[in-house]
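Take a record.
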Amino acid sequence: MEGPATRLTIYIGEDDHWHHKPLYHEIVRRARDAGLAGASVLRGVEGYGASSLIHTTRILSLSEDLPLVIVIIDDEAKLRTFLPRLDELIGEGLVTLDQVEVVRHGGRTE
């Protein structure tokens, strides 16, 4: 994959679950099952969303529901086809699409 592509970014909380499993795990599994190029889950150290409640890793904070970001880059049509698979999963959170340019994408040669 090289050239123009689309980035799907999903913002959720670490405490979000789907059938007693972490929500991010279910999203990554569905992305793989859909044949998307790849998915990465990134854990934030601090953030807030629609509730305006700040979640942080600071020692004195009581919050452990840290922000998570799931990033998937692929062809726009494939990602738009994937979006309905997220509808039942994401109650609270933010989902965005934006255009990117892939300059290098390669798998392992093992």
About this structure: The CA atoms of residues 2 and 103 lie 6 Å apart. Helices lie at 23-33, 76-87. The mean pLDDT is 86.
